[in-house]
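The authors assume throughout that readers already know how a fold can be written as discrete tokens. For illustration, here is how one protein appears when written out as sequence plus structure tokens.
>
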Amino acid sequence: MITGTWHTPTDEELLRIRDMMEDAQFYDAIARVPDEALSTALAGSKDTALWVFRVDQKAVAYVYMTEMATRLPKVDEFGVFERGQGFGKAALSSLAAKIAQTPDYEKLWLNVVDGNDNALNLYRKVGFGEEKFIAKGWKTRSGRVVDQVRMWLTLDTLRGQAS
């Protein structure tokens, strides 16, 4: 079992996050969060957060969270640097547990491009469900208009597992 923890990214890790967001292979899956929004998240915003998931002191994934000031925080962007090694599942499971520690939060949610089967399967394995199809929900940076699937994770189910 992979264990790790979420942290504020170092300057070097922030560069790695930006590089992944700007990598053309992810243009149809990951948005490029503007630098101003990333800076706001790093400055202690109540509504946004930017974290890296470290395993053995090495960043293996990142998350950009929005809507943190509501009862329904959103995984706005999620990326795994070290793919195919189980880090994505470990990172998302740890993130859900971290978010569930705030009693006011009801559900964690995200949107994923329909047809991104690796991501859909990963989210389902972690417990995301209650799916809603959103036709033509997002225009990617490569100019494609794609369908999305909105997925939720009810946090009370995690809180029940912890007791």
Summary: The domain at 5-162 is CATH 3.40.630.30 (Aminopeptidase). The chain is about 30% helix and 35% strand. The mean pLDDT is 93. The chain has one domain: 5-162.
